[in-house]
Amino acid sequence: MATGRIRVGVGGWTFEPWRGTFYPEKHPQKRELEYASRQLTAIEVNGTYYGSQKPESFAKWHDETPSDFVFSLKGPRFTTNRRVLADAGESIERFVTSGITELKSKLGPINWQFMATKKFDPEDFEAFLKLLPKSVAGRELRHVVEVRHESFKSSEFVAMLREYGVAQVIAADSEFPQISDITAPFVYVRAMGTQEGEAQGYSDTALDTWAERAKVWADGAAPGDFEPVASDAAEKTPRDVFLFFISGHKVANPAAAMAVIKRLG
Question: What is the CB-side half-sphere exposure of residue 34 using CA atoms within 13 A?
Fold first, then answer.
């Protein structure tokens, strides 16, 4: 039976406490991406949220990683942290033409993250979704939105995302609202619950559960322990899955990701 591709990773690759825990002692810092990309299958890049990157940087990331590796990019905060989202067109255009296509086939979804104070304004949010290009320079773009205000937990929001084929971040094990409805041809999860005291961030049982959830999403279904917002379910069809272990006890996130990758075989 057909199934989607599951990719598991962390946020970024430059984090001092990973040196000697995730990275071997005295491993050259300039080769950290090369090492991380051979232990994980995806990385979410946070740096693109805070500032622009040069095309040469994207090309370098492409060249340092395995052929089937994928980068998810966070869209710039200047795009999403604004009162009127309908005015974001120029900022979106600037980002998607900034050289991200130098990643070629390794370009994963773009995560547009919103502040927790941003409320759901249906008219303005739909105007934002209309601005998201489906492709750039002949390369298909996949978009995911990370909303963090309770007002987004509505069937109207879910229906809107489905209309535009945009995913929303499933914010698991976190203080943020969890909207687990499937709205796009892929699933994007940010698991934020790694804990100090667990060598791999989560217990063995919890890691087993994460691996099983990923398989269910990849097969086109939805895990039974995630309550959807809307009453109508998405069509059951294989979907790619992006599962990132983010924040929480950050030093353990690579161990959690590698443990799930091992369970997925």
Answer: 9
